[in-house]
Amino acid sequence: MTDSKSETSNLLQDMNARSREVFRRVVEGYLASGDPVGSRTLTRDFSEKVSAATIRNVMQDLEYMGVLGSPHTSAGRIPTQMGLRMFVDGMIEIGDPTDMDREKIDATMGSNAADVGGLLDRVGSALSGVTQGASLVLTPKHEAPIKHIEFVSLSPERALVVLVFSDGHVENRLFTPPLGQTPSSMREAANFLNAIVEGKTISEVQRAVTNEIAHRRQEIDVLAQQLVESGLALWTGSDESSERLIVRGRSNLLENEAEEADLERIKNLFDDLERKRDIAEFLDLAEEGQGVRIFIGSENKLFSLSGSSLVVSPYMNADRKVIGAVGVIGPTRLNYGRIVPIVNYTAQLVGKLVSDRS
């Protein structure tokens, strides 16, 4: 995305004042209505007296530059993905959230309940309601030191790992054990882990186990080793039962998109979301830069086929470490000037509240 930003910055610098104003008004009109903007619409409130023919010539030049497009047979223009990127990077005016938007977010987080999961679920619902888009909330991992681990066989295809944390928190996670596991191999795997686990967080245990397996491959049998590695895979978030992505507001997108092609695009987006295979990558997107990041269309690695935009911001704990993210996803004609401050405000508030409850 860096190369794209550099390219659009150069294009913007090459424009004269008239081209900039035409481009800005086309984009703002499109974001407000979703419809192509024609030359006659622009001449009515343009800052200088110019003819519709002059405006049309400027629009043709902007289309040649690749920042405007002409859909179907319409005489109007809409911004291309590159045009939207140029507008977002160089022309958009980002202020603070309105008092009304801030009050709606604040009201959702006003509960004193210690349940972080419940808090983040309410945050997702509020963010979806305020923005009229779909909200995404990536919840933090529980990073307290582990006290004890136990494996419980439920069936040949299903097993449970019980994680007891030093702060009293207990998590039960389902996973698929390797073929041929036995009660003794599960006990051996648990004993192996408990010998190195105490006082370490899950992330630290992953590193420790990897090192221990490398040094002690001959000391534990093959099934126990496979069981440990299955557990590791589960802790990295690849198992359905331990996904950490909360999605709210699907109906908002479906209601706002009337055309059949758009409905299919939204369906593909939520198929992506429901599989939730790229949650780690979602957090990586947020961690790559400070503050709010905007991904337009195919720039969005997580939902590259959806043709949607993602506005996402990480939130941090008291140690300024990124532990999760909040975001809004919607059509590329999002009201970025309004959505960006809402997402930024929500992320800062979530970080503070999660830290206070930790």
TrEMBL record:
Gene3D superfamilies: 3.30.450.40, Heat-inducible transcription repressor hrca homolog, domain 3, Winged helix-like DNA-binding domain superfamily/Winged helix DNA-binding domain. The keyword Transcription applies. The keyword ATP-binding does not apply. Residues 119-340 form the Heat-inducible transcription repressor HrcA C-terminal domain. Pfam families: HrcA. NCBIfam families: hrcA. Belongs to the HrcA family. GO terms for biological process: negative regulation of DNA-templated transcription. GO terms for molecular function: DNA binding. Keywords: Repressor, Stress response, Transcription, Transcription regulation. It comes from the Bacteria. PANTHER family: HEAT-INDUCIBLE TRANSCRIPTION REPRESSOR HRCA (PTHR34824). InterPro entries: GAF-like_dom_sf (IPR029016), HrcA (IPR002571), HrcA_C (IPR021153), WH-like_DNA-bd_sf (IPR036388), WH_DNA-bd_sf (IPR036390), WHTH_transcript_rep_HrcA_IDD (IPR023120). Negative regulator of class I heat shock genes (grpE-dnaK-dnaJ and groELS operons). Prevents heat-shock induction of these operons. This is Heat-inducible transcription repressor HrcA.
